[in-house]
Specification:
single chain; 396 residues; alpha+beta; Heat Shock Protein 90; 2 domains; 10 helices
Length: 396
């Protein structure tokens, strides 16, 4: 089976150069315009070199080194047959194409080789002719070799720089897109935490009291449960409307929206008392923050941790005392919420664990630590303990 090599069609520029050189060479030969009519080979060999040179032009881009090698052989035949200017012109283009499209080694070596060949050729011409015309022959050799080689170097450098700039621009655009996606994901996570923290408490109270109203056949207890349900429904709807308003106005706001602070903890505990409506439960706050304000991110994280802990206590805690403790330590704020854990009578709202996930995310963003679970050695107490680093320079 014969071996078939895949051939690539020549590009448009190569075809145009080959046709122009071929037609121009035939015209020059027909007019008898050769450099040395009294050459060692018959003039028809110049036409053969012309055809070969035109064929080499067709592969100048896809196989530049092969085209240059063919062109050198054709140029040698052309010089011996009288030398057509068209052959010389096409050879200069092959040198240029070899530097521009060839491998890096050719890009570095060809200009140096042409310089050496020009110098040696000039010296040989001067020695052989013993006349100043030898210098002219050397200059002509430089024109057909050195000039196209260094022209190719300049064009290739410019092309490589443009390609490097394009790749850098694409890389910058890709990094910007990745940053944008990360920002969107982070913003969505923040919105999810805020939505959960603001509404989960109200929904938990609604779930508990609606279950109580369905399971307890007492008109007074059902009426009280429905009152709590209505109150939490109204508050939850107001929180949802506020959050939606903040999202809609985010693009046009010049100032950041107000965020909850630890000054609102008393209201949080009062809301928890209202949600439970059971004398066997009590909520106690021990605020040991001391004077002065904390950085806004720390206050918001601490507020949300207490809020979620109280929500979980309303859903899962057994009757008893729910303690919220804040303690200021060197370089940190410690938040601790302790609640009874055991068999609680009455209906209980299901928990999905999203609150603990949100607390861990908030603490991780500040570089703090969070522990949540039963107290070691005592399976009847649930503790949430968070340590939030405080940078003194961030205080306002």
């Amino acid at each position: 089976m014969p071996l078939r090599l895949p051939l690539r069609p020549p590009d448009r520029d190569a075809v145009l150069i080959a046709l122009a050189g071929l037609l121009g060479g035939v015209l020059l030969y027909a007019l008898g315009l050769r450099s040395d009519p009294a050459s060692t080979l018959p003039g028809r060999f110049a036409l053969v070199a012309l055809v070969v040179m035109a064929g080499a032009e067709l592969v100048r881009r896809h196989a530049p080194m092969t085209a240059l090698a063919i062109g050198m052989g054709a140029l040698a035949v052309d010089v011996c047959a009288g030398s057509l200017v068209a052959n010389v012109a096409m050879f200069t283009d092959l040198v240029y194409a070899a530097v521009l499209y060839g491998p890096p080694a050719a890009y570095r070596l060809i200009p140096r080789v042409t310089e050496v060949v020009t110098v040696l050729g000039t010296l040989m011409a001067v020695v052989i002719t013993q006349q100043a015309t030898g210098l002219l022959l050397g200059m002509g050799l430089g024109v057909i070799t050195v000039v196209p080689a260094w022209t190719g170097v300049g064009v290739r450098v410019h092309r490589d720089r443009a390609e490097a700039a394009r790749l850098a621009a694409e890389r910058t655009a890709l990094l910007a897109e990745l940053d944008r996606r990360e920002a969107v994901v982070a913003e969505r996570a923040r919105m999810a935490r805020e939505l959960h923290d603001m509404v989960a408490g109200h929904l938990s109270a609604i779930a508990i009291h609606s279950s109580a109203a369905l399971s307890i056949d007492e008109p007074e207890a059902s009426r009280e449960a429905l009152g709590v349900i209505r109150e939490n429904s109204v508050q939850g709807l107001a929180e949802m409307r506020r959050l939606i308003g903040l999202l809609r106005d985010a693009a046009g706001r010049d100032e950041p929206a107000p965020t909850p602070t630890l000054a609102g903890l008393d209201a949080l505990l009062e809301r928890a008392r209202t949600a439970v409506r059971d004398d066997r439960f009590s909520f106690v706050l021990s605020d040991g923050r001391g004077p002065g304000r904390l950085p806004a991110p720390v206050e918001l994280a601490a507020y949300r941790i207490v809020q979620e802990s109280l929500t979980n206590a309303v859903k899962h805690a057994a009757p008893g005392v729910v303690r919220v403790e804040l303690a200021r330590e060197p370089g940190a704020l410690e938040v601790r919420v302790v609640s009874p854990l055991g068999d609680r009578s009455g209906p209980r709202a299901p928990g999905a664990g999203a609150g603990l996930t949100g607390m861990r995310e908030r603490v991780a963003l500040l570089g703090g630590e969070l522990l949540a679970g039963p107290v070691a050695g005592d399976g009847k107490v649930w503790e949430v303990r968070a340590r939030l680093p405080v940078d003194e320079e961030e205080k306002r």
